[in-house]
Write a structure and sequence with these properties.
Structural class: alpha+beta
Shape: globular
Number of domains: 2
Strand content: 25-35%
CATH topology of the largest domain: Pnp Oxidase, Chain A
Radius of gyration: 19 Å
Largest sheet: 8 strands, antiparallel
Number of strands: 11
Order of helices and strands: HEEEEHEEHEEHHHHEEEH
């Protein structure tokens, strides 16, 4: 596996990091804080932050930020980590825009406690357009990557400079909700088998949370009622519901073989 593929899979397996912005209050100093995020279908991080948050104040003055993503192990120096250098751009709240509706639904599936945030009209999505990244997979295995290498559908500099944050959704993004509803209604048993076969995880219930071109995420309920988030990577990238079905059928065949 090459470094780019490994970095993509690592990014897709995470949901939180340390977001650092340039302080508006203390000029010249970086300000860091933990930040949950989801990825959009271009594999760009999406954060939800309040208008009164320090990060929001900072981003309004300087949109250049970094997001440090790391695995939660005791020996952090020996663990994989990924530093993303990004431009943070606000996504306008538009209840008539299907892309915004789908993005909000995706965020709430991963972070259900955030549902109440939208009632306050105080929280906004920011898309973090990855420009450069530094991935450290382990000792002697590291390197710099461009945003284009990490992202599956990268916006170019002109689009971001023009403030075009509402790029049309991919076909897969538009079909994601229906795919998830189908899997969570008709194929729970298959996903339970995926957990056991591919990750040796015994689960009593599974809920698909999201699917993208590189794989999909589920929330597995364990015997002690705890939950575990599990990432499945596709062998080949998918682009729509049909290719998603082909990939999932191939996984089911692998389970039975």
């Amino acid at each position: 596996m090459n470094l780019v593929t490994e970095a993509k899979q690592f990014l897709c397996s995470t949901r939180s990091g340390v977001l650092s912005s340039f302080s508006a209050k203390f000029e010249g100093y970086p300000f860091g804080s933990v930040a949950p995020f989801v990825l959009d279908h271009a594999l760009q991080p999406i954060v939800l932050i309040s208008t009164i948050a320090e990060h929001t104040k900072n981003i309004l003055l300087n949109r250049k930020i970094s997001l440090l993503v790391f695995a939660g192990h005791e020996d952090l120096q020996a663990s994989s980590r990924l530093t993303l250098m990004c431009d943070a751009v606000k996504i306008e709240t538009d209840e008539s825009n299907q892309e915004y509706i789908d993005l909000r639904a995706r965020y709430c599936r991963y972070f259900p406690d955030s549902v109440g945030y939208f009632a306050t009209h105080d929280f906004n999505f920011y898309r973090l357009h990855i420009r450069q990244a530094r991935y450290i997979a382990g000792f002697g295995n590291m390197g710099w990557l461009s945003g284009c290498e990490l992202n599956s559908n990268d916006l170019n500099s002109e689009e971001i400079s023009a403030g075009d944050t509402n790029k049309p959704s991919s076909l897969l993004a538009a079909q994601e909700t229906s795919i998830i509803e189908h899997m969570n209604t008709d194929h729970i048993e298959s996903m339970i088998q995926y957990c056991q076969h591919f990750h040796s995880i015994t689960t009593t219930d599974v809920e698909m949370l999201g699917i993208d071109s590189t794989g999909f995420d589920v929330k597995a309920t364990l015997a002690n009622s705890d939950h575990q988030f599990v990432r499945f990577n596709f062998k080949q990238a998918i682009t729509n519901a049909q290719t998603a079905r082909m990939a999932l059928v191939a996984m089911s065949k692998a389970v039975r073989s």
